[in-house]
Specification:
Arc Repressor Mutant, subunit A, Four Helix Bundle (Hemerythrin (Met), subunit A), 2 domains, 71% helix
Length: 223
């Protein structure tokens, strides 16, 4: 394993130094192994590991390429790990959401275009007259993803999307068991949207904090 780690580190250094750039094709396996002083087996294991975390893209019959290295691609690996969360860590995910989402919402109030704001309103109006809890939660996820994307920060957006999954069941549970939860969610969404449309970042931040903290506090008391 130590030899594979060393191979991973050497390829990583080639990318960090700019010797290999996004979209570049790696040299042939035999040439690269000789150049790095590695066995071909070690190099193969390193390439396989870096492909799993979306740093490299192995194209059968074509070669191995450095990916775009965009945040959403690299952080996709975190989403995979996050899926292994236990129920007793959901509160911790909500705590992190309470830190990140209000910041993203404030940024969205400054960066979202008028067209983006209109699209946000369309998401809100897309809820059926008598929605199920699952439909409301799906709409809630779209709403928050759109705001995160509107923050203008791709890393922040990817982090928030990665953290959304583990809290989905808690949102559904709240909608099924807490009286008035669904109406409250819709009211808070409207307030967040209005603050973004009015270009009031601190008001948007405050409403987003109230919104996420409401789920967190409900779950804390329920547990």
């Amino acid at each position: 394993m130590a030899v594979t780690d060393a191979a991973i580190d050497r390829i990583k250094q080639m990318i960090i130094s700019g010797e290999l750039r996004p979209g570049d094709r790696l040299p042939k396996e035999a040439d690269l192994a000789e150049r790095l002083g590695l066995s071909r087996n070690s190099l193969r294991e390193a390439v396989r590991a870096l492909a799993l975390i979306n740093v490299l893209d192995v194209r059968q019959g074509d070669g191995t390429y450095v990916t775009s290295l965009q945040p959403n691609l690299l952080l996709d690996a975190m989403s995979f790990v996050v899926d292994f969360h236990r129920d007793d860590t959901v509160l911790q995910f909500l705590e992190v959401r309470r830190i990140l989402e209000p910041a993203a919402t404030a940024m969205a109030a400054l960066h979202m275009s008028d067209e983006d704001v209109e699209a946000l309103r369309e998401i809100l109006s897309g809820v059926p007259d008598e929605p199920s809890v699952e439909e409301l939660v799906a709409n809630d996820l779209r709403f928050h993803q759109h705001i995160a994307a509107g923050s203008g920060n791709a890393v922040l957006c990817s982090l928030i999307e990665s953290l959304s999954g583990p809290t989905t069941r808690a949102r559904i549970w709240r909608g099924l068991t807490q009286e008035g939860a669904n109406e409250k969610t819709r009211e808070q969404h409207a307030a967040i949207c209005d603050a973004i449309a009015a270009r009031q970042p601190e008001v948007a931040r405050a409403w987003a904090t109230v919104h996420v903290a409401g789920v967190e506090e409900w779950l804390r008391s329920a547990l």
